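chain below, 114 aa
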Amino acid sequence: MSTYLEDLAAAKRARLVRDTVMNTPGVRQVLAATALQVQGYLAGPTAAPLTVVTQCAGGRHRAATTAMALRAVVAGDVEQAAAYGLADAAEEFADRDLVVDLVHRDLDKDVVDR
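prediction:
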């Protein structure tokens, strides 16, 4: 398969995973609430870096997707957050110029066998 077709297939799979995860009942509300929690912690009293962790059983679909969505929101990336249905939440952060580092801890680990 050509690299173009491989990339196209990977992009389709990524969209399918994103859409499936983000259409889970309540997931957008949980992420919006987590973003509000981040705002609260950033209000003080400490200036220390803030770490937010998302996790699921395998760490490859739900955790990865929700982490990418939350990163888009907290970074104020309204366009990227819109792909997750969270543009309104991202607008709250748009002028904050926060630096958001995203680390996918489990993507390179073996699949959990259940």
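The mean pLDDT is 86. Residues 22 and 84 are 6 Å apart (CA to CA).
thats it, cya
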